[in-house]
Amino acid sequence: QVQLQESGPGLVKPSESFSLTCNVSGDSITTNFAYWSWIRQSPRKRLEWMALISHSGTTYVNPSLNDRASISRDTAKNQFTLQLRSAGPEDTAVYYCNANLYGHLFWGQGTQVTVSS
Fold it and tell me: If pLDDT is split at 50, 70 and 90, which confidence band does 46 have?
């Protein structure tokens, strides 16, 4: 069974950039028809999908992030990473990585990111 583990900076200052990494075990991120996403939940909002990278490396980013986000992967390390630029208070949230494997969903435990000076 696939397992996901997020890691991130915890605390970020406003206007800074940060990265979140999801380490994947139990399956390869290049497995056919596998889709890997970042999703976040802030205290006042519902879950917000941020970005996705497919088994083939195709990427999709939520347009509401105004080009502040990008997603990439390291197939050798079997991990994928979210980069978010120009952090603001609205980016304070619990960030989850997610896998969709043949319609089955798997989640990491989440990592808190707080944007504060």
Answer: confident
